Amino acid sequence: MRIADRELGRPHFSGRGFKLPVVIVLTYTALLVVAPLLAISWGAFSSGVSATLREITSPDALHALKLTLLLAISASGLNAVLGLVTAWVLVRHRFRGRALLNALVDLPFAISPVIAGLMLILLFGREGWLRFLPDALGIQIVFALPGMLLATVFVSLPFVVREVMPVLSHLGTEQEEAAHTLGATGWQTFRKVTLPAIRWGLLYGISLTFARALGEFGAVLVVSGGVSGMTETATLFIFRSMDDRNYAAAYSMALVLAVVSFGTLILIELLKKRTGQRR
Amino acid sequence: MSSSVARLENRVSCEVGRPWGRWGLRGTAMAYLVIMIALPVAAVVHAGLEEGLLRFWGAVTEPVALAALRLTLVTAAVTTLINSVMGTLAAYVLVRYDFPGRQILNALIDLPFAIPTLVTGVMLVVLYGPQSMAGSWFAAQGVEIVFAKPGIVLALLMVTYPFVVRSVQPVLLALELDQEEAAYTLGASSWTTFWKVLFPAIFPAIVTGALLTFARAIGEFGSIVVVSGNIPGRTLTGPVHVFGLIESHNTMAASAMSVLLLSISFLLVLVVDWRQRRKESRDANR
Question: Cβ contact (<8 Å) for B242 and A235?
Answer without folding.
Answer: no
